[in-house]
Amino acid sequence: MKLIFNKLQRDVLRRHIGPFVFCFLTVMFLLLMQFLMLHIDKLVGKGLPLGIIIELIITNLAYMVVLAAPMATLVACLMAFGKFSELNELTAMRAAGVNPFHVIKPVLISAFFLCIFLGWFSNYVLPDANQRARSLFIDIRTKKPGFDLKPNEFYDGIEGYIFLVKNINNETDSLYNVTLIQKPDSDKNRKEAVIKADRGYLESSADGQLLTLYLFDGSTLRNLTRTSSYDPVTEETHFDRYRISFDLSDLSFSRSNPDQRTRNDRTMSAEAMLAVVDSLRIERESHIEESFNQDNSFTPPADTTEITRQTYQLQVSSNRTGVADTVDKVKSEYLAVNLMKNRKNQLGLAEMAISDLRKYKSNVENLKTNVSWRDSRISRYLVEVHKKFSIPFACLIFVLIGAPIGMFTKKGNIGYAALFGTGFLTFYWISLIQGEKMADRLFITPFWAMWFSNIILGIIGTYLVVRLCTSFKISNLWKKSDS
């Protein structure tokens, strides 16, 4: 019996390989197409080397691997165990006295090792890949578009020049009715000019850094020095053949060092983010302690002449409103105000107290802003830390969900697997996305933001496995209590 049981386990594992690989590659393809559709406008028209585009795609495949593996695990379990039950092998296994959990156990062990691998991959490989992809995106975004002339369209991609070509023969690369506007540049001793020609052609150097324009049968109109602001001096010359070269080095793609760029929460390992979190917490506590240690008490000065000096403007204002120095002081519920000799000093004391209160309020608001900003950053980093492990852990959860559902439905085709898989995956990813947004806004903790869906699906999966492997039902709980 032991030998048959081992063969059965190996057979179930083999049945997972095909659906897992198929679903994994399918999800990777869909994610790749989504990536290309979102960023194709940033890659086209800039003359990027093919190697750079391939490197950009490869570096972005890293995050796709982390997302695709749990999805593939769920669909593979639904298909493999559904087929296992559809062929009545589950019935035969139970008749032989074999518990269904022994068939699920090797898949759980495989999912555990996959979870370990994805956790390591997400913590050490993914941050570096994201940093390289981010650096490449910045380099591509700052690169100027490649030289691309189009008929009847102005082109100003080369600094200091504007091109206008009426017609282009793509077969011979010939240009017709060419107009070239040359802008002045004192550093290069270049004067303002308009060059026109009936025809011409372009020739590029072997390394692509130099572009030469040959023009035939044309004229050049140059602006010379001005005798006055309203009397420009121009010179027109005709030519049979004219040649001008352009430096295209500014249009070439240049790589920057990714290690020299600052890293954010998506390009750091969990250890690095926890170190940043510790620093932010120390800064937060330091600001709070410093604020509470400040002397925010107010003591009125004993010398009333000091109050009079500090409130000179208030005196003037009081005189304008008819409050004279000889007016008797007013009674107040505050003891310090009653100690003043006249109303003018009383008003000065009140103004000083209000000024100190406003200063204290400003300090409290600044403290609240600083603490809130650091709490938000701490939450953002902790969300990424939990995400690095919650998504890989979903592989185990999806085995607990997929195995019993596949056996209960007794359908091992891709249609049922896609239907049930879409439902659970939609719930899972919506929970992660919304949880991350709520955690960034400090509505919930980072732990619940990233682990809520795992906990809910884990409870459901555990119950389904127990229900499959034993005679336990939830309804048995209140049936026994009724009896």
Write the layout of secondary structure elements.
Elements: H1 2-43, H2 50-86, H3 89-95, H4 101-142, E1 161-169, E2 174-182, E3 193-204, E4 210-223, E5 234-247, H5 270-293, H6 304-310, H7 312-320, H8 335-338, H9 343-409, H10 414-440, H11 446-469, H12 475-482
Antiparallel strand pairs: 1-2, 2-3, 3-4, 4-5
Q: Domains counted in the coordinates: how many?
A: 3
Calculate the terminal CA-CA distance, rounded to whole Å.
Answer: 41 Å
**DSSP strand count:** 5
* SSE pattern, N- to C-terminal: HHHHEEEEEHHHHHHHH
The proportion of residues in beta strands is 5-15%
Return the average pLDDT rounded to an integer: 80
Shape: flat
Helices and strands: which structural class?
A: alpha+beta
Helices, by number, come to 12
Low-confidence stretches: 1-5, 303-326
Query: What percent of residues adopt helix (DSSP H or I)?
Result: 55-70%
Radius of gyration: 38 Å
Major β-sheet annotation = 5 strands, antiparallel
The largest sheet has its strands arranged as: 1-2-3-4-5
